[in-house]
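Task: encode each sequence below as structure tokens.

Item 1
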Amino acid sequence: MIYFLRTHDGMVDKTLVMTVNIHSEIVGSTEYVPYVVPPAYPIPAIHHLPNFQNYTLPKNEIEKLKIILPPFPLQQVKAGISANDVTCYFGFGLIFKHEDKSPACVRNNTVRYLTERGWAINNTNQESISLVEESGKEVSINKNGTVGARVTIGVNIKNFQILSPPVIVTIFYPNGTLYKTDKISSNDIQSDGQYKYNFTISSTNASDIYGNHKVYVEHNDNMVEKYITIFAPP
């Protein structure tokens, strides 16, 4: 949790980072000058409270006062968020590493410096991919014991280039082994970068169907992954 401590006139005086365990007990705190918090947060604060005693914060106070920090950029991308739509903590700007075009959050005053030095690239026309599960999952069980499932996944490629290499879709079974790889021609992608991918799977082994399937999409050195969960019917 992060608190902005204010003076009587409303000005922010300090930033207080507090660590709360699963029992809603405050177990540590660290103070910083206003708005200056290390970019690696959220990580546990290491300093004990002055009274060296745990204090249980009411759950309604936690919900009312805490600020939920955005996940790390790569965690957001793995969750299906477009790289261009990655959210950075207050005071940090979004850039893309020149080496692998992966998103990163850096302090606003260093964005221009890193770009001029070649470490980062301008993200104005940077292509990015996002995945959205667009429809309900269809699960069927045939008389011969074969289980089938179908899910429609929306693929959105921002700044899509029409004359470009195929889009590669790789899908894994819940146990992590490869299920299949598809190549989608750029001619099949709409001019606005939209495409509906039908993920279908069938097997006589229910463990191949039910569980988390990793869907990995790659195009023009840009990549994103998303987990599609298929539940057994009630």
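Item 2
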Amino acid sequence: MFEVRKSLLMQFENREPLLNKNSKAIIVFFIAIVITSLILFKNIFFQSTFLLKNFGELSVDPAIAFKNNKPTFLEFYAEWCEVCKEMAPKVSALRDEYEKDINFVFLNVDNPKWGNYIKRFDVNGIPQVNLFDKKGNLKFTFIGKQEEKTIRESIANLEKETKSNEEVINAEVSVIKENKNNKFMPRSHG
């Protein structure tokens, strides 16, 4: 009887390291899959955030944009804004397509430097896109998530004679709330 117990105990002891080895192998395999996925699909996971961070660097200075006799695409955005992130690839595609003919101005609402533009264009939700003709007249305002097709059609109609600004508001918008750290109402997510 003693030998049977000893034999069973030895079998159990031999199985425990085998289970630990299998568990470790499964964990290592899972981690390898996650890391590989992140590397292979990093553009999908991080593209929008990367694009938003670069919008400011790609931007034409607004003072120049309104004086160089070209139509202007002016977007107010924030890096934390989920709707802005969702629209970033579409906006980037528009910029790539039209950058020779249109000024693209991107103003981060969290930067106090742009406070006068935020007030001037009554920005209270983001993203907000304002389209101006080459004379600097505001023609279209889009607030919230927009279809690329809608913005493209508006760009095509920029030089047509229209009497007033057309405003398009979508329910998917990030609301701007007062932030006590800045005097001019910086943004928080709503």
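Check on item 2: Residues 179 and 186 are 6 Å apart (CA to CA). The helical segments are 2-40, 42-58, 62-65, 82-98, 115-120, 148-156.
End of task.
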